[in-house]
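Notebook entry, structure prediction.
Reason for the run: the old model in the group folder had no record of what sequence produced it. Starting over properly, with the input documented here first.
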Amino acid sequence: MIVPKGKLIIIGGAVDMGTNLSAEEHIMKPNYMKFFEHGILRRMMNESAHLTASKVEVITTASQIPELVGIEYIKAFNQLEVHNVNVIDIRNREDTQNPEYLDRIRQADVVMFSGGDQLRLSSIYGGTEFLQILKYRYCHENFIVAGTSAGAAAASTNMIYRGESSEALVKGEVQITAGLGFIDHMIIDTHFVQRGRIGRLFYAVASNPGILGIGLGEDAGLLITEGNMMEAIGSGLTIVVDGRALLQTNIYDVEMGSPVSIEGLKVHVMSIFDKYDLPQHRLVMKKKTKVEDGVYLQMPDRD
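New structure, fully documented this time:
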């Protein structure tokens, strides 16, 4: 199994730019400031090959308002003195073959997928040379792949693309398909706490207990290094659902449209600076943090 040399950053979203709300609600009063107030974008740049001089490409494919979303991300990065930021506006599979875009992702230090509809990402990028280049660079180079909201949900091999929170534990309501495949044995849901999506993740894990469920709250992210160590970044909470010790479920017996029962799921809650060892399925908590000027700082643990 290849140990990736790159880093994967998945973010639950601070603003779901380009998804369920109107363009006016998203863009006229943007909330992109949360990304760097609590350190997610700053941490991203600190992890990148050339720090603030890194080349950043923002991919807005998932959004229905890509021009406006791209502008807001450029502003957010500029606030951190990151000025080599460009937007790749791919809207269909033909666009993925554009030689300019292929060259730009070969040269980039960071590629970030914006929010929107994750099904657009899987259907437009699946099987393309564009995605193959990103995967190769992630596996073999000091390269960052990041995604927020839909961009995070699509990062794993399996992804949730449909399922109302209120009906999530009814058989057939949660729909799962193939994602972009940067990490295996995991399924990711976003805007997790705010939209009450715990049932969606429970259902997804119960239907395949071999995968780890990740529920990212808003302004919550995970930095994944070497494909096996997750560190919580941002001020929000991340829920981890482990189905390996699942005792029983009737998901395979009940009829479509019937409620599902589950016994024995294991749930963890991660906050900033906590780490989770994927091979060992072990959570390592950071005991002490402090806040200065709205920024969370890691403190040394003392016995």
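Summary: Residues 15-33 have pLDDT under 50 and may be disordered.
The old model has been moved to the deprecated folder.
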